Amino acid sequence: MTVRTTNVDGTTAMRGTAVGVMNVLIAASVLDAAAVLPGERAATLPTATATDTAAPAAAPAPAPAVRSGKTQFTRPNGEEFFARKIQFGDQETTDIDLTRGWLAEGLHPFYVGKAGCGKTAMIEAATHDWEGSNGLVTMMGTASTTASDFTVTRVPQPDGTFATKKGPLTEAAEGGKVLYVDEIGRIEPRELTVLYSVMDGRGEFNIPEAPELGTIVCQPGFKVIASTNPDAPGCIIDDALLNRFMPGIEYTTDFSIAVRFLGVKKEVAALAKDMTKQVKAGTAYWAPTMRTLLQWKKIAKINGERAAWQGLVTAAPEEARQEVAAAIERAVGVKVEAAAWEM
Predict the structure, then answer these.
(1) Cα-Cα-Cα-Cα dihedral of 137, 213, 174, 142, to 10°?
(2) DSSP character string of 232-252
(3) Which of 22, 45, 222, 343 is most buried when burial is the number of CB atoms within 10 A of its CB?
(4) Backbone angles phi, psi at 153, to 5 degrees
(5) Residue 179, Cβ neighbours under 10 Å: how many?
(6) Annotated domain spans of the chain
(7) What's the CA gap between 15 and 239, in Å, rounded?
(8) Architecture field, domain 12-39+70-250
């Protein structure tokens, strides 16, 4: 997990396709070399040097972190999830325990990251089989999502009448569950005002389309957690909503976990790691994520490694396939076509 600290002025906190415009105000650093592959040496960070001889004021002791002592968790679909260790401020924790700790204190976490890096898997693992959660209700955001999609929809019946179907927000609020809004940045900001009253302490809302339901009161355990891909077309979140979330953390692919626990070949992870560095440096256009690495593993098992390498090229956007094919040849000596699969 890495975090960029970029302050953004103006009424829009996140806009466009650049990660650099994220309103990320807190920092977490990798502990236990999460981005270092087995056999590599972790870089040594320089020690801070004091510049003032005056004794610093005593800092308040941090609140105890949620520490499960676990590194392996289960998602609702039965898949295993391996937590990554992080150093967050003065505390050693994991991404799972960090998320659970915030939820337990009534905070609303917010994660940003590329598609396929593991945001959803982590959120599902954090809220599943945990005494602090009554369950997770997931909602996928799109450009056509409206406020009523959160609260209630009218479903036409064969007799010409309409039945009321409660939306994800209503279901989560009444059940004291966690509402997860995936790709929240793709939803028009005006449609997200429906979340304001449930995130700012009021804890209740009314549904104009269904007055018969009365006031919906959020039950204990209800929280909102969200994630988005900042590079998704039209990604935008305004300050009014973002200020109700915890400051966003950029969630990245952990190549070490891919190798140590998920059975991804070190050569594949090393290539992906190097390509990720190039993307961040602005010298490459695309890099594989955790989802891509797991796809490589499955294709290699079924069809062989050459097919898996070609699949890696196919996974890249068309404009990046030439550089991906070249990177594969340089790294592992396998020559593949700079084109998608053809039947």
Answers:
(1) 20
(2) STT-EEEHHHHTTSPPPEE--
(3) 22
(4) -130, 155
(5) 27
(6) 12-39+70-250, 265-332
(7) 11
(8) 3-Layer(aba) Sandwich (3.40)
For residue 184, give the nearest of 172, 165, 200, 169 by alpha carbon. 169
Q: Model's pTM, two decimal places?
A: 0.77
User: Is 341:311 a contact under the CB 8 Å cutoff?
Assistant: yes
Distance CA 72, CA 97 (A): 12
Q: What is the DSSP secondary structure assignment for residue 179, as one 8-state letter?
A: E
- Work out the angle between the directed axes of helices 119-127 and 95-104 (0-180°, nearest 10): 60
Helix (H/G/I), strand (E/B), else coil: 107: coil
Tokens, residue 6: 């970029």
Instruction: With beta carbons less than 8 A apart as the criterion, state whether 22 and 230 touch.
Output: yes
Q: Which residue bears the tokens 């996928």?
A: 140
Question: Crossing angle of helices 321-332/305-315, nearest 10°?
Answer: 150
Question: Mind listing the pLDDT tens digit of every residue in the chain (343 residues)?
Answer: 333 323 333 333 333 333 333 333 333 433 333 456 776 654 433 333 333 333 444 444 444 455 667 889 999 999 999 999 888 888 889 999 999 999 999 999 999 999 999 999 999 999 999 999 999 999 999 999 999 999 998 888 888 888 889 999 999 999 999 999 999 999 999 999 999 999 988 899 999 888 989 999 999 999 999 999 988 888 988 889 999 999 888 998 999 999 999 999 999 999 999 999 999 999 998 999 999 999 999 999 999 999 999 999 999 999 999 999 999 999 999 999 988 887 7
Q: Which of 115, 76, 77, 120 is nearest to 99 (CA)?
A: 120
Beta strands in the chain (DSSP E): 12-15, 29-30, 72-74, 80-82, 85-88, 91-94, 110-112, 136-140, 152-156, 162-166, 178-182, 204-206, 215-217, 223-228, 236-238, 249-250
Sign of CA dihedral 52, 57, 63, 64: positive
